Amino acid sequence: MADVNYNSVVSGLRKEFNTGKTKTFRWRMDQLTALLRLLDENTDALNNALKQDLNKCVAEAVLFEVNYSRNEVITAMSNLKEWMEPEWVKKNLFTMMDTCFIKREPLGVALILGAWNYPIQLTLCPLVGAIAAGNCVLLKPSEVSMNTALLLEKLLPKYLDNDCLKVINGGIPETTALLNERYDYIFYTGNTNVGKIVYQAAAKHLTPVTLELGGKSPCYIDKETDLDVASNRLAWGKWANAGQTCIAPDYVLVRPELQDKLIGKLKESIKKFFGDDPKQSNDFARIVNSRHVDRVRKFVENGGGSVAHGGVIDEKARYISPTILKDVKDTDAAMQEEIFGPVLPIMPVQNEQEAINFINSREKPLAMYVFANDKKVAERMINATSSGSCVVNDCLVQGALETLPFGGVGHSGIGAYHGKFSFETFTHKRACMMKELKMEAVNVIRYPPYTEKKTNW
Ligand code: NAD
């Protein structure tokens, strides 16, 4: 990719944007329709690429990637007309006779940097918002999920307007070079350290950003909880995609007397989902590459506490079994950085107040989960903490409701998207006021000279 002149790619996109064609309802609908066709006509190829990159099973590929993206496209198509309408605002005495409204305008050229763990969803869902809002787009899928990245590079130009959408593949040097250019919006999904690099690059041009980052998302299990149900939902949220989910429960906080019971139930859930040997299960994903196997290995071998379940690593197969660490302490390695893999540390806490204090002593997480029969406990946990999202008595499901914004707070990110929030993300809300040239007599009051009579009324 070294011979691509990014400056001329961005200039070309800006030139296209300036023709005004992406602003029309027709262009936006045509592109969204084409994106829907791409998803419908290439489901098998997309599923295969996900299988190669992450050993993602068809059910998870359809649920979390292809259908998930389809739903975003369909929502945008169904609501686009309404979203694009001017918003009439309340007026005051001085503007009673004027036409006052908010016009939603595209920003221009958007750079979208996708992520590898859900490489279809996390690349195409921001794209849906950018197109719906009428922008030109430079899209860079994550090089880590290379099979999916190459497929997107091949498919997108076949379906979408090539003058207004460019796909560029590449790694750190290409991302670095791309970030030297000037955009009207940057949408990045990935880790917090690179998020800071993106933010600094954007600051040079005062470019607004969305940063969809990570962090350690806690899960508190209260004493009054149905552990059979909780363990199923927690195990599903943790071990889907082998734990490589940004909103996966990263660690569990539980009362000491419940820890062993919870571990027993989690083991049952793991067995129900993936059988005696999860390596043989079609439904258990692999770690994306050997760099990440090495990263997650640290938590299995030296994460802290003791291995209560799993701990099997096959480096060649990029396999790490569902692993539970018990009696983990806040100073242990597993509690210092995001796990982003199939290892679940359990840290005992005396009560919910200790859980709240612990959560508040850390950076604000992307998600927080509470399992409790007692609604008051759940409400107290929500009111006393902060996170991008929170769910009571389940995991991950918040991401599938498009009427909820998806994004972080503090170190877990800036901005949010999904559904209408995606459209708003790539949109400028332009304040518009249209007056008549009539009735000039009433304006005399605001023109100098500012006599006492004018200022004291
Ligand atoms: P990564 O290492 O693949 O990096 C992401 C992108 O940054 C890649 O395109 C890469 O080329 C680029 N990059 C890496 N180093 C760079 C550098 N020094 N300069 C410029 N560009 C650079 O991504 P990752 O960190 O493995 O992704 C996992 C993280 O992403 C986790 O923290 C996870 O929680 C987070 N994540 C967040 C969301 C969300 O929606 N909030 C979704 C998925 C993943």
Query: Which range best describes the helical content: under 10%, 10-25%, 25-40%, 40-55%, 55-70% or over 70%?
Result: 40-55%
The structure class reads alpha/beta
Ligands present: nicotinamide-adenine-dinucleotide
Number of helices: 15
Q: Which stretches of 5+ consecutive residues score pLDDT under 50?
A: none
Rg from Cα: 25 Å
E-strand count: 18
Main beta-sheet annotation: 7 strands, mixed
Strand content: 15-25%
What is the 3D form?
globular
Spatial order of the strands forming the largest sheet: 10-13-14-9-8-15-16
The N- to C-terminal Cα distance equals 68 Å
Q: How much is the average pLDDT? A: 97
Keywords: Membrane, NAD, Oxidoreductase, Transmembrane, Transmembrane helix
Family: Belongs to the aldehyde dehydrogenase family.
GO cellular component, one term: cytoplasm
Organism: Owenia fusiformis (Polychaete worm)
